[in-house]
Amino acid sequence: MSKLRFTEQPLSEWMRREGKQSDIVISSRVRIARNLQHQPFPMLATNQQSEEVLKQLQTVLSDERLKSYGKLHPVLLADLDELDKRVLVEKHLISPNLANESRSGAVFISEDESLSIMVNEEDHLRIQCLYPGFQVQEAWEKATAIDDIFEAHVDYAFDDRRGYLTSCPTNVGTGLRASVMMHLPALVLTQQISRILSAVSQVGLTVRGIYGEGSEATGNLFQISNQITLGQSEAEIIENLYGVVLQIIQHEKTAREKLIGESRLRMVDRVMRSYGILSHAAIIDSKEAAQRLSDVRLGVDLGLIDSVPTEVLNELNVLTQPGFLQKKFSGSMSPGERDMYRAKLIRERMGK
Q1: DSSP class of residue 62?
Q2: Locate the Phosphagen kinase C-terminal domain: which residues (predicted)?
Q3: pLDDT at 296
């Protein structure tokens, strides 16, 4: 089993920092998709062409402006085993698409893991910046500055009318995907979530699970991101997302106040039941673990429980994923074995 440093610790350094509105917004992310001119898109490229793209983009790492963002570690996907790839997906450092890529796929990862630059994924280049809490504007400013550095070294595929050209038509234009990961348990408990998310879809945004497109929303965690990349400027996309998220935050806060005001005892009971199950269960599957951790996080945010640091909950959200479980306990496991070790790990963390 490999010893890639980025797969050894569940909590990225950037996740330990304080973020705005962090009781509701877990993280903010901005991703920029780009392709090189005169090179076929990755899905059509030969191995040699993909190698050429990787070599060309690796030369940008020596730019002093890029170095100002800290050391970037090149990681070749071909050098990783399947478990390491899965862990990198669970930490959001690479996409599932890149994890399945065998032709010259790579990622450049910063020391604190807040910056990951994917090469030869669906597009030649995908620049991703991650921030704790509600800091989508800050993530955008960093991502666009890094994009400018790459653009100074390579020619992007660009059309005067359509904008930046990408493999998927839904990314054409700005190539920008901005998103926030939100914890919305009160809107779920008060049965308002469907109405809120339906309204979100009417203003050019989309809702996904924690691993993006095609993934399920578990543990009351929802990823809100822009759906439109063509016909709007980057500033308009960020502004639209920012404004809508502010409204969702307010709705969630109002729902939490209602829950604690009208049924405080029921909320205390729910939180403490989940805390008790997490602290004593002998087996627990990933879906139940996510829901119980959501209950405890809500209890912490509402001041109903003070014995569990938020950092522990952030860590457990990653540690309890299948890849990390197998990484920590050194081997492949059946679903039943994962449920047993997941419960063991949660008990240990809760006990501390």
Answers
A1: G
A2: 24-255
A3: 97
Name the average pLDDT for the chain: 92
CB 175 within 8 A of CB 223: no
Residue positions in the annotated binding site? 27-31, 92, 126, 177-181, 208-213
Q: How many other C-beta atoms lie within 10 A of the C-beta of residue 206?
A: 17
Question: At how many degrees (to 10) do helices 193-201 and 234-262 cross?
Answer: 170
Kindly indicate the confidence band of residue 105, based on its pLDDT and cuts at 50, 70 and 90.
very high
Tell me what pLDDT residue 8 has.
85
Helices (H), the chain: 47-58, 64-67, 82-90, 96-99, 136-151, 185-189, 193-201, 234-262, 264-280, 286-301, 310-319, 322-328, 335-351
Q: How far apart are CA 12 and CA 29, in angstroms?
A: 14
Q: Is the pTM of this model over 0.90?
A: yes
Distance, CA of 238 to CA of 32 (rounded, Å): 13
Which tokens hold the place of 295? 């209950």
Helix, strand, coil percentages, rounded to 5, for the chain: 50, 15, 35
- Interior CA angle at 297 toward 347 and 114, to 5°? 95
User: What pLDDT was estimated at residue 330?
Assistant: 73
What per-residue confidence (pLDDT) applies to 332? 82
- Listed residue (323, 343, 322) closest to 1, CA to CA: 323
Extract long-range pairs of 111-115: CB within 8 Å, 24+ residues apart. 111/13, 111/70, 111/71, 111/73, 112/12, 112/13, 112/14, 112/70, 113/6, 113/12, 113/13, 113/14, 114/12, 114/13, 114/14, 115/69, 115/70, 115/72, 115/142, 115/146
Q: pLDDT tens-digit profile of 253-292?
A: 999 999 999 999 999 999 999 999 999 999 999 999 999 9
For residue 169, the 8-state DSSP code is G
Point out the annotated binding site for ATP. 27-31, 92, 126, 177-181, 208-213
Closest by Cα among 3, 7, 6, 5 to 323: 7
Tokens 């990653």, residue?
318
